[in-house]
Amino acid sequence: MIQTRYISKSYDQKVLDDVSLSIEKGKTVSLIGPSGCGKSTFLRIIMGLIQPDSGEIQIDGKVMASKNALALRRKMGYVIQSGGLFPHLTARENLTLVTHYLGWDKAKENERIQELSELTNMNPSMLNRKPENLSGGQAQRISLMRALMLDPPILLMDEPLGSIDPLVRYELQNDLRSIFRELNKTVLLVTHDLGEAAFLGDEIALMKAGEIIQTGSIKEIIEHPANEFVKQFVQAQRSPLEEY
Ligand SMILES: Nc1ncnc2c1ncn2[C@@H]1O[C@H](COP(=O)(O)OP(=O)(O)OP(=O)(O)O)[C@@H](O)[C@H]1O
Fold first, then answer.
1. What is the ipTM, given to two decimal places?
2. Hey, is 53 helix, strand or coil?
3. Does the CB atom of residue 39 touch ligand 1 within 6 A?
């Protein structure tokens, strides 16, 4: 479970303003909002990569503090839009970077990679390639496998499908949804796309200028928008069928 209470962060200006959000174990929340509203900063704060100015984060009931930040980070897999794979390492080396450090033997690593290749529909023959020789979709499957290597209960995903073409994106959305459900992960996923947010999320949290304006199901957000901004945000999603 993830729980944040009154998280605030400023740089030159306020980026997050008293952000409180709860994600129950096994549920997915899609975080959506305009560019620059603070979504990535919020994820990085939950991941323990950035210190908030104030507020509290609880991961599975434990309050995050400097002494347990590393242990709590191990409970979270993190996937970013660009994949974040190390370019000089092969896909397999990217996957085993942390397990190697933790002293896993080769057989255990191979078994886990085999399991995750099946789960993510990754062709194992790609694992000896460097990231530059993988397509965007393949690289994101590797990033997802890397995030899942230690079987963390939580996944934080920052626009994981942002730079993927529509057909592969559609396929990956289906795969992600079944992976989240099959593995019962607690997921916070950032996206710009309301359709994707609704498809993948049990709930949607809509953010504007560092504040969460509304949290709820897609039905609640469409039928009972909290304010004019939410209404406009929903209306601003263009369907290709509009022009048909
Ligand atoms: N290290 C930093 N120093 C100064 N300002 C920062 C820093 N990191 C983020 N910001 C600012 O904080 C605001 C929120 O950035 P953030 O990346 O969290 O937004 P976002 O909602 O994820 O945007 P996008 O959807 O475009 O990725 C932006 O105005 C950004 O310029």
1. 0.96
2. coil
3. yes
- Map tokens 């289906």 to a residue: 174
Query: Rounded to an integer, what distance in angstroms lies between the CA atom of residue 111 and that of residue 109?
Result: 5
Strands 203-208 and 28-32: parallel
**DSSP-derived 3-state class of residue 46:** helix
Pocket test of ligand 1: the residue of 7, 10, 12, 39 to mutate, having most ligand atoms within 8 Å of its CB, is 39
41 lines ligand 1 (CB under 6 A): yes
Residue 27, by phi and psi: left (phi above 0), alpha (psi -120 to 50) or beta? beta
pLDDT digits (tens, 9 = 90+) for 56-110: 999 999 999 989 988 899 899 999 887 789 999 999 999 999 899 999 999 999 9
Whole-number Å distance, alpha carbon 120 to ligand 1 midpoint, is: 30
> How are beta strands 62-63 and 54-59 bridged, if at all?
antiparallel
Q: Is the beta carbon of 37 within 6 A of some atom in ligand 1?
A: yes
Cβ(34)–Cβ(54) under 8 Å?
Answer: no
11 lines ligand 1 (CB under 6 A): yes
- 207 Cα–ligand 1 center, Å: 13
In Å, how far are 38, 178, 179, 197, 202 from 216, measured between CA atoms?
19, 21, 22, 11, 8
Note the pTM of the prediction, 2 decimals: 0.92
pLDDT exceeds cutoff 90 at 242: no
Alpha-carbon span 17 to 38, nearest angstrom: 9
Separation between Cα atoms, residue 226 and residue 47, nearest integer Å:
29
